[in-house]
Here is the input.
Amino acid sequence: MTSQSVREETDFSEEQRAGLYHAIVNRRDVRGQFVADPVPDAVLARVLTAAHFAPSVGFMQPWSFLLISDPAVKARVHEDFTAANAEAAAMFEDDRQATYRRLKLEGIREAPLNLCVTCDRDRAGPVVLGRTHMPTMDLYSTVCAVQNLWLAARAEGLGVGWVSILHPDRLRDVLEIPERVVPVAYLCLGYVSHFNTKPDLETAGWRARLPLEDLLHFDRWGGDGDGRAEAASLRDAVRKSMAGVRNGVIS
Amino acid sequence: MTSQSVREETDFSEEQRAGLYHAIVNRRDVRGQFVADPVPDAVLARVLTAAHFAPSVGFMQPWSFLLISDPAVKARVHEDFTAANAEAAAMFEDDRQATYRRLKLEGIREAPLNLCVTCDRDRAGPVVLGRTHMPTMDLYSTVCAVQNLWLAARAEGLGVGWVSILHPDRLRDVLEIPERVVPVAYLCLGYVSHFNTKPDLETAGWRARLPLEDLLHFDRWGGDGDGRAEAASLRDAVRKSMAGVRNGVIS
Here is the structure.
């Protein structure tokens, strides 16, 4: 069986595969483009279902979804953001700080819905299959749920922004989250006027997209493939794949 | 503008959206179905490109991809798995331990490719936009890259299994990973004979899929929406969405 015939056997049409890649490439961390249109229940349900189908260590499914639409709760979270953001800004020097202060970094009040995705570390008892040697695996599972949700939202035309400039303990207080439960992600969610073509931080000149071919290692950290043709060939393929993305698709 | 008209304005065809959901619902943690067919460079490049388009805190892109095909390196990692797995098995009691010992939990040697996805915590200097108050955000960004890769692999017909029953320090030694870099995920990757319809742990009766509607909270932890019609309506929509998935799609 040739590799090509294996490819042809996948249960995805070209258009379905393109849909996944379209979501991956055009997903944005949305802070400034939210509109007030409510999110229909059926749409929100699909997005949450996508999150629930994330992988989880020991099939633990440690996530919960705390949906926030009460303006008073949003206002308290926004207050925390404002305090944390002032602390954060002060950590950057000179020009960098000036740029930082110009960035819009959250859409807490504008987004019709805020969503805190949490991890209940005790959901499956103290010993969890696959968590015994990597205790952070349940937090990582919860992040996989966030990424599923983010991609599904993009395909539904919904913007999502992850706000991490918050004191987690303060967030726990505001949302009455118990000790055993970790607030992993605080998301703003809603329809948007448009999706930007590039990440805001790339557009602002904060940092550039790194060349993917420089991030590959072979068989050990720093391993360049020992001159093997396979390594050079993969680097070329990665360069081509990344160049193709300039048109918004992976192909 | 009605919500329906917003929906119709998305830049996804129905089939493209279905493709994303198909990948999300039918992605599996593959341990036992790998075949030896090599993964073509172009396919592997697309999957790595998908990972590289993950969100990252402060546009840090902290990930690297360590590709392992050397059987000697795989054998050393497999030795570590065997030792860690024996320790893990002993933590479970009686029947549970017997079930645990019957489970196949990795495909390190059978999968043509192993892939360690790492997080370089120093990639963007000591102060990172968005990481100031949540220091784990760069690890979470790396997990988002893993999930993108996992979904892309599924759409390409490639299975991926995340092996977390490993001592991270031992993995660091075997792969010569420097101190500042965290090995976040050790993945087995390759074409598969088939994808199972359910998670292995669900099939084995280890744990059941949780009802998603029980994982929703409104405005605060434990908040049931205070009898608001919106909360009941969303719970109904979530139940319907999850029931629809029995046919392998989200709709």
In short: DSSP finds nine helices and five strands in chain B. Chain B has a mean pLDDT of 94. Residues 218 and 225 of chain B are 5 Å apart (CA to CA).
